[in-house]
Amino acid sequence: MAQFDMPIEQLRTYRSESVEPPDFDRFWADTLAQARGHDLAARFEPVATALRTVDTFDVEFSGFDGHRIKGWFTVPAGAREPLPVVVEFIGYGGGRGLPHERLTWASAGYAHFLMDTRGQGGSWSTGDTPDPVGSGSATPGFLTRGITDRDEFYYRRVITDGVRAVEAARTHPLADASRTVVTGVSQGGGLSIAVGGLVPDLVAVAPDVPFLCDLPRAVRITDAFPYREVASYLSTHRPERERAFGTLAYFDNVHFAARGRAPALFSTALLDATCPPSTVFAAFNGYGHEDRTIEVYDFNGHEGGGAHHEALRLEWLPKYL
User: Fold this and answer.
1) Which single residue of 83, 161, 183, 257 could bond 111 by disulfide (Cβ 3.0 to 4.6 Å)?
2) pLDDT reported for residue 122
3) Res 60: pLDDT
């Protein structure tokens, strides 16, 4: 694909026209208070694997509405002292997979907490966390589940799970709660921005080609999925346009980014039709902390910087720990 979005000079100054709901903060404060009314009950069970360089724990904790969420907690083998903890969120359609699939952060000396995504894990990796909440009429996928009601919208549950994942990770004896980072790619990058806007004491946020940014523009400028799900839904549910976009405003990372309180390393790719670069720049340009950097991959699509960007994250993070 050729570059289809704004030129880079315009991207660097672009600001979203997404309108923040006046009760945005109250909505999220109430949502998290409701979730915290349930016992976090974080459980870490050692897992026997053939891996010699890391120790892995099977995790379960209470997320939105007390629903039990799975994850993996992985540390360098034999670790005895608390370590900086990297909480990672997963891309769209994926699940936590198997313990040996994500070893980078533990291999670099961190405690790594990987949150399973409720209801996902049926596309490119396996998941173990059901979403017990149904929804009304929706397009196949996750982006339109409950889209006409902010209280029932799927990502209200997932973002809340993400905040609770940070809280759960911090309860493990090998996690240094004062040195907590959130990161992820695509949907995982979007969740890291949202969680970064809701958890005030993170030391760093590293969203890679993030999803859920500048939603009104994203839905209109790309024909790629998952954003196409919203257009497909509204092509048959024509009277629901205002309600749908009214709901999405409570989950737009442009508004979470404005509340970012930690240094951030973003990435985007100029050929990315899945998470168009202007939508990523919308969140980056409005990010709330002055120490923010964005890496731009001129000739890549949604794969972004791949292993090169992973190496960059590994080099960038220690300065904040």
Assistant:
1) 83
2) 85
3) 98
* Residue in 18, 252, 272, 309 annotated catalytic: 272
Residue 198 domain-assigned? yes
Number of domains in the chain: 1
Residue 128 is among the residues annotated as catalytic for this protein: no
Catalytic pick from 135, 176, 289, 302?
A: 302
Binding residues for substrate: 92
Residue 79 lies in a domain: yes
Quick count: other Cβ atoms within 10 Å of Cβ 135?
16
161 carries an active-site annotation: no
- Beta strands in 77-115, from DSSP E residues, in sequence order: 83-89, 111-115
H or E element that contains 219: helix 215-221
Instruction: Say whether the peptide bond before residue 200 is cis (omega within 30 degrees of 0).
Output: no
The answer to whether the pTM exceeds 0.85 is yes
CB atoms within 10 A of CB 103: 15
Residues contributing to the annotated binding site: 92
In a domain? residue 2: no
- Give me the half-sphere count of Cα atoms (radius 13 Å) on the Cβ side of residue 263: 13
Residues comprising the chain, all counted: 321
Catalytic residue among 186, 192, 267, 278: 186
Within a domain: 1: no
Q: Is 137 a catalytic residue?
A: no
Which segments in the chain show pLDDT lower than 70?
none
Name which of 131, 167, 160, 142 is nearest 59 in CA terms.
Answer: 167
Which residue bears the tokens 């996750």?
142
Residue with tokens 């904040």: 320
Domain that holds residue 59: 8-320
